[in-house]
Structure formats: C-alpha cells, structure tokens
C-alpha cells in the first residue's frame, strides 16, 4: 500500500514549535514518563511477588499496569525525544506501527477496565459465588479474550490507515500518529473511512463507558445491603475505578466519536488518555488501596533485610 503513496515520511509538529516551550515539554513529559514507568513497574513487581495479592482484582490490576506501561511507551519516548530535535520526522512504517501499538494497548486498557468492573460486580453482588465465578481459569480466559479483541481492533485501525493515499502535505499537527490527524492529510474523500473509525474506536469507547457506568450504578445500589465497614471498603474501591474510567474515557469519546475534524485542543485532550492516565492509575490504585500499600511495604522490608545480610 505504501508504494501507492508519494509520502514516505511525516513531520510531527509535537505539542509546540516554540523552542523554549519545547524544553519545558521535554522536562515535564520526561518526568511524567519516568513516574509512569516507576509506578507501574512497582505495581507489576509487587503483584507478582506478593502472595497476599492473589485475588482476581489484582490479577486484572497487573494487566492494567502492563497496558499502561506499553501505551505510554508507544507514545511518550518519541514525543520526549522530538522535543529536543529540530527535524521531527517519522517514517511511514514507524507511523503505522505507532497507530497499531497505540490502539492495541489503548483498547486493551478499555477491556481490562471492563473486566475489573465485572470482577467488582461479582465480588459485591455475588460474594458467596465469587471464587467459583472468577476462578483463575476464567480470569485467564477473559484476559486472553481481551488481548485477542485488542489485536482485532488495532488490525482494523491499521487496515484503515493503510488504505489512505497520501500525496502531500505530510505535516501532522500532533505529537503522535493517529487516524484522526492522518485523515486530514489523505488526498481522497475520507467520509466512509471516518464512519468506520467512529463505528470502531468510537463505538468501543462509548459502549464500554456506558456499560461501566451502568455496572457501577448497580454496584453502588447494592451496597445499601452491606455492613458499614463493607460498604466503606467497597465504595473506596469503586470510586477509584470510577475516577480512572472518567479520566480515560472522557477524552477518548471526545476524540473518536465526531466527524473528521481536528481542533487545537485535541493534543491537550489526547494527553489525558495517552500519557496522563498511565501515570494516574498507579497513584490511584496504591494511595487508595491498603492491601497494595502493605504488600509494597513488605516487599521493601524484604529488600532491606536482604541488603543488610549481603
């Protein structure tokens, strides 16, 4: 498909073209990315090494942190390096790879958030059957389905991108390659492709968000039958999830459920779900979760003891 295009590379304008602001962007997003890696890798290591975090909720949290790490890594490093360069070009193949990886791990995050809502629903509304319904085998199958679904979604997105003919210009007013800004550069009528984009990405975001909000309404309604302590603990967990869902899905729905137009605010809004949410997730799930904090303390204590013995 690339042979039919006159464009072999694109120019990414990034967050800004002002030299001073580019240095500020570099510093801020380097810190954000390092914080994202540190926070999510800490959660991954803690869950893998702690026997106390063996419940399905933490099994799904492990994959949420993994998808956060991969989503941020597919976008942030390139953005950070480009902030230091004058020539911010990206080859056609690299651009298509970024489209695929961003949608792959973004979609995986959506599916994992849905699975976490299902897990909380079963835990709160069907507590006596929780371990039977959410067995290790069932959880493994659900995560495998999430991976397959993400691959199907991102394959559909990349097939749409590869169908677009580019004959110039090749300047993308964004900090990463995505279908919306690419549609603006295509030298063909993109009406049908935009409809397919909305029916794919837009539908996944909107339907998942509605299902998640509906499930949490049911969960919160059912909490009235629980004890005060059980209600407090379940409410704390659910509120963490709801905060993540709103921060992630709000920007996604804004970007992917509208006609093929771009707005100056798109780049800042995209920052929320591509770079912001992967940083916020570990903060929310550790600061608001006593079990994770205790497991991290035990892990740190073991490391200090082993270092002292060494």
Automatic annotation (TrEMBL):
Recorded GO molecular functions are: G protein-coupled receptor activity; olfactory receptor activity
A single GO CC term for this protein reads: plasma membrane
* Coiled coil, from the record: none
Q: Which Pfam families match?
A: 7tm_4
Q: Which residues cross the membrane?
A: 24-45, 57-80, 100-118, 138-156, 201-223, 235-256, 268-287
Keyword Acetylation attached: no
User: What is the name listed in the Swiss-Prot or TrEMBL entry for this protein?
Assistant: Olfactory receptor
Identify the gene encoding this protein.
Answer: OR4C11
């Amino acid at each position: 498909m690339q042979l039919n295009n006159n464009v072999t590379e694109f120019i990414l304008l990034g967050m800004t073209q002002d030299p001073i602001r580019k240095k500020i962007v570099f510093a801020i997003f380097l810190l954000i990315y390092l914080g994202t890696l540190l926070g999510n890798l800490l959660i991954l290591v803690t869950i893998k090494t702690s026997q106390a975090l063996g419940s399905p909720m933490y099994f799904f949290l492990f994959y949420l942190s993994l998808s956060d790490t991969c989503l941020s890594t597919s976008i942030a490093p390139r953005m950070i390096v480009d902030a230091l360069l004058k020539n911010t070009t990206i080859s056609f193949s690299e651009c298509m790879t970024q489209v695929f990886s961003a949608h792959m791990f973004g979609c995986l995050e959506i599916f994992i958030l849905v699975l976490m809502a299902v897990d909380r629903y079963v835990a709160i509304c069907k507590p006596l059957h929780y371990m039977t319904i959410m067995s290790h085998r069932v959880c493994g199958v659900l995560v495998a389905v999430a991976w397959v679904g993400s691959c199907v979604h991102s394959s559909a997105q990349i097939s749409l991108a590869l169908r677009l003919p580019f004959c110039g210009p090749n300047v993308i007013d964004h900090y990463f390659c995505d279908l919306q800004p690419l549609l603006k550069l295509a030298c063909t009528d993109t009406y049908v492709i935009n409809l397919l984009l909305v029916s794919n990405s837009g539908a996944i975001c909107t339907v998942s968000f509605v299902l998640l909000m509906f499930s949490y309404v049911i969960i919160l309604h059912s909490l009235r039958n629980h004890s005060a302590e059980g209600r407090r603990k379940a409410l704390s967990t659910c509120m963490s999830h709801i905060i993540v869902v709103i921060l992630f899905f709000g920007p996604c729905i804004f970007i992917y459920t509208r006609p093929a137009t771009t707005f100056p605010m798109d780049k800042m809004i995209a920052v929320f779900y591509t770079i912001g949410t992967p940083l916020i997730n570990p903060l929310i799930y550790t600061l608001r979760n006593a079990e994770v904090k205790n497991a991290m303390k035990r892990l740190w204590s073991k490391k200090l003891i082993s270092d002292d013995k060494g």
